[in-house]
Amino acid sequence: MTSSRAILVFGDQLNRAIGALSSARSGIDRVLFIESTEKLAAREWHPQRLHFYVSSMRHFAEELRHEGFTVDYERSSSFRTAITEYRRAHPGTEIIATEPNSFGARELLADLGVATVASNQFLLHHVGFADWVDARRAKGYKTFKLEDFYRHQRTMLGVLMDGDEPAGGRWNFDDENREPPPRDGHDRWSSPLIDDLDDLDRQVIDDTAVHAGRGSLPVGWWATSREGALKRLAHFIDSLLPQFGPHEDAMLADNWHLAHSLLSPYLNNGLLMADEVVRAAERAYREGRADIASVEGFIRQIIGWREYVWGLYWMWMPAYRDENALGADLDLPPAFATGETSMNCVGKVVEGINERSWAHHIQRLMILGNLALTAGVEPRQFTDWMSRVFIDAAEWVMVPNVVGMALFADGGRMATKPYASGGAYIDKMSDYCKGCRYDRKKRTGDDACPFTTLYWDFLDRHAATFGRNPRIATQVRSAQKLADIAEVRVRAREVKGLLREGRL
Ligand SMILES: Cc1cc2nc3c(=O)[nH]c(=O)nc-3n(C[C@H](O)[C@H](O)[C@H](O)COP(=O)(O)OP(=O)(O)OC[C@H]3O[C@@H](n4cnc5c(N)ncnc54)[C@H](O)[C@@H]3O)c2cc1C
Ligand code: SF4
Known about the structure:
Largest sheet: 5 strands, parallel
Order of helices and strands: EHEHHEHEHEHHEEHHHHHHHHHHHHHHH
Strand content: 5-15%
Bound molecules: flavin-adenine dinucleotide, iron/sulfur cluster
Number of strands: 7
């Protein structure tokens, strides 16, 4: 007998507590997963990214089977074909889904006539975010900055609050969380967990090999089940959260993870829910196991930044992903994909991505994003590359972080200044410059640091755009007053040519 309801679950909704699945009854409702060749073949994915997506979905399907659900795991040429064939095979069964997390998937479901229920995967539904923006506008505010949103979230969710006051007496401990890397003791942070691959994991490696691009095969850094994700959450809270804050922005050649949580993949595909992660961090503070600066710094990333970019994505899509306010038109330099470059910082970060499909926030923003911004890489190409290689990539988070934050391609709607810097910042926040053939202080000549050259050239090139920006106008004026600005322009053109040809 056919059941009357099949709950369609996307690969980034893998949790029993999400939307339609939260009220599903085993033995009564069916659950439908679709693994489409069209999606798997859409890009040359990093093997670990591809594996994480497929293996997590298959593991979750197994879990639901153990719970007693009839699970239909359809492998099909395309999503559309799968839905059409499923309807034919199960007449009378209504397919319902939880609102998908991407704009394209929502359009597709609407087109296919699949009904959706509201998603509770984020702490604030994006309609709630739009309401918050409207309320601020109605009160006469012209901006809706992260800090204001974050305080709203803290209050509304009752996170890290002592009555009406922020725990620890302050909303923000950022100043204590920007230390450069320590000179020694680079092994002070306990290593991330690594698990043996199970049979299902190994099967997925074989099944997806044909669609995998550059990068190392999975070795167990990334959990593909809820059990593995929960283990990693506990490991982070117990061993790393107490040290999360101080070196959040630091980069080290011999330590890829520092105190970062490495939880974004699970938060994004549903193996972990934001609420349980935030509550676990707050509990550690309340029980005296982690100090306020670290806990506040971590919680701000999740209830602040993560939810903020989610809200912006829905407010500004679909036009947002194509924005290119600075007219950037350089093709993606091969160094991003290959890591073959004489720039030590870029080489180290890309090597890490090839090995583990991951880099931390400052490496994404101030190495990869900074180079793409100052060299003028076309935003869509940069987004596309990042989407292929990062284990945690998802359009809703990638687009605002690339278009808004890293590349200033939205003309400053999200960030109040461009995140451009020369070699001096990278030298202060990392140990990359020591072994590099370039001189971070030089902006012209063959041994000039490409970041330093491109930084001054960028300020000069975009002086009309940034000359009145209070956060960067002084640097723009300094660029224009440089005695050697003409040589900087010439060297910057050379650098861009070399980058394009893969010779830098
Ligand atoms: C150019 C660029 C591209 C990015 N692309 C992605 C992406 O595709 N997927 C993704 O999840 N994050 C992305 N980020 C944000 C951030 O870099 C990652 O979330 C973070 O590095 C993941 O590592 P972690 O889990 O150890 O984070 P932690 O440092 O431990 O932070 C905790 C959590 O906070 C959230 N978070 C922190 N910063 C951000 C942010 N800026 N936006 C949204 N959430 C944030 C993440 O869920 C993260 O797991 C991008 C940032 C930049 C600058
Ligand atoms: S000198 Fe420049 S290119 Fe070399 S590591 Fe430092 S910032 Fe990177």
